[in-house]
Amino acid sequence: MKYVGLQSQIWRNNTSSIILLIMFPLVLYGLSWIFMFFTIQEEETYSLDAANRGFVHFFPWITFGVGLWFLIAYFSHSSMIMKATGSKPLERKENMRVYNLVENLCIAAGMKMPKVNIIEDESLNAFASGINERR
Q1: pLDDT truncated to tens, each residue of the chain (135 aa)?
Q2: In a domain, 81, yes or no
Q3: Are 81 and 129 in contact (CB under 8 A)?
Q4: What is the bridge-based pairing of β-strands 41-42 and 45-46?
Q5: Which of 23, 31, 34, 108 has the fewest beta carbons closer than 10 A?
Q6: Does residue 130 fall inside a structural domain?
Q7: Domain range holding 49?
Q8: Using an 8 Å Cβ cutoff, are 98 and 116 in contact?
Q9: pTM score above 0.70
Q10: How many domains is the chain built from?
Q11: Which residues, including other chains, have CB under 8 Å from residue 15's CB and lie 6 or more apart?
Q12: Which of 85, 58, 73, 66 is nearest to 26 (CA)?
């Protein structure tokens, strides 16, 4: 197996995230145009011109909705993930073994210690989330 360094993984994840963020509004625009094409009819036929006029009319609303979705995701993604997974913050005194393990891994990787949350579940689990180092 080919070795992939940490910086390569970070770069690849950031690139994939940017592509997904760009594709989200484009897919919504495309689906909206298709919806317009098949629902707006002129003289009992489908019309490209009618679909384009309908799409131009709704374009600002779609853009506003996408922007609102991005704002909500940016400011509340951590709380949504914590509620969806049922995770709770882990303090050093609660579980020193896990906390020290994460701290040692961060020191070895040369990164800041993140907030550590734990999910009470029988299965092995781990995930990382956040937009930048502070989050």
Answers
A1: 566 777 888 889 889 989 999 999 999 999 999 999 988 877 777 788 888 999 999 999 999 999 999 999 888 888 888 888 888 888 888 888 888 888 898 898 888 888 888 888 888 777 777 777 666
A2: no
A3: yes
A4: antiparallel
A5: 108
A6: yes
A7: 1-76
A8: yes
A9: no
A10: 2
A11: none
A12: 66
